[in-house]
Each structure stands twice: as C-alpha cells, then as structure tokens.
Amino acid sequence: MKTVKFRFFADYEKEEKWVNEMAAQGWHLEKFFLGRFTFAEGEPGAFIYRNEFISLSGAEKDDYFEFLRDSGITIINEFGGWVYMKKATADGPFELYTDTKSKITYYKRLINLFFLLFLVNAWMGYANISIFWDKTEKVFISPYIGILNILAALLMAYPMIKIFQRKKALEKDQQFFE
C-alpha cells in the first residue's frame, strides 16, 4: 500500500525528523517533489533516513553516490540538489557528518545557498515593485510578482537563520572542547 503526504518544511532537519517518524510507523519514503512525499508501507523502524543538499555535479557526484552505496546507503530520490537516502537500522547509526568541522562546512554551504536565493528573490521583488511604481515605464509588470518575490525572500531567510544558529552553536562547542 502507498500513501502520499503533502508537507512543506522551511527547516530541512524538521523534515528529516518527520520522515524518520513516518518510517518508525512503517511508512517508508519512496520519492519526494516540492512538498509531495510518497511513502510505501513496510516494516516499522526498518530504515533511518537522511537528507542532504549536494552541490556536486558530474563525476564528483557519481563518485560520492558510489561511496554512499558502498557504505550500505541507498539513494532514494534527488530533486534540486536535495537528496534523500536511507540505511537499514540494523546496520547501526547513520550520520553523514560525523565530525564538527565537516558539519560546520556543510552548514556554510547551506547558508550560502539560502543567502543567494534570498538575494535573488529580494532583488527581483524590489525590481518588480519599483518598475510598477515608475510611471514613465511603458512596461507593466504586476506588483503581485514583486510581492511574491519578497515573500519568497523572507521564506529563504528562515532556514538561513536557523542554519546560522546551528552553525554558531557547533562553533561554540568546538571552541569549548579545544
């Protein structure tokens, strides 16, 4: 039996936690696409799921995926750089970043991604709204597009701030233990 759930998460760690809660109830992720998650019924708690943003391409990405497969990890689905993967619970813990330094580097990559998306949307929003208010311009661009861009920019700010806070906490812990 299969089920489809629609959820939108601005925090990728909360999304991952929810997918793992679904797995604990016996619903295993098969694919995802823009807030649409397809699950298949199976043994409760059989797998641990992780999601990761991968900025690699070509041979580097293929090598990384091969490394993951060799480690007993199954790639479930990839969309827009985000990859969901699973590993059998019986195989032990499943962490993609086992040391603080690599986790901080990953957080920096995510912050850069969300910051870029924030800037593009904020700029496009400003441009669309300012063109609308410029009465000398003959081109009409709906201010609603600009408002949507501004809302998208604000939406990008939320995960960026959350990830920045997590990164700072890790850096603080790292300094404490050094």
Compact summary:
By secondary structure, the protein is α+β, with helices and mostly antiparallel strands.
Could you walk me through the main structural features you see in this protein, from its secondary elements to its overall organization?
The relative contact order is 0.12. The strands form two sheets. A three-stranded antiparallel beta sheet has the order 1-3-2. A three-stranded antiparallel beta sheet has the order 4-6-5. It is globular, with a radius of gyration of 20 Å. It has 178 residues and is of the alpha+beta class. The longest helix has 35 residues. The chain is 53% helix and 21% strand. It has four helices and six strands; from the N terminus they run E-H-E-E-E-H-E-E-H-H. Helix 3 runs antiparallel to helix 4. The protein folds into two domains: 90 residues, no CATH class; 78 residues. The model has no long low-confidence stretch (mean pLDDT 88).
Overall morphology: globular
- Strand-residue proportion: 15-25%
Count the beta strands.
6
Q: Quickly count the domains.
A: 2
Strand order of the largest sheet: 1-3-2
Report how far the terminal alpha carbons are from each other.
Answer: 51 Å
Q: In oligomeric terms, what are we looking at? A: single chain
Class from secondary-structure proportions = alpha+beta
- Which sequence of SSEs, written as H and E, runs from N to C? EHEEEHEEHH
Share of residues in helices: 40-55%
Mean pLDDT: 88
Radius of gyration: 20 Å
Count of individual helical segments: 4
Main β sheet profile: 3 strands, antiparallel
Query: Unreliable runs, pLDDT <50, ≥5 residues?
Result: none
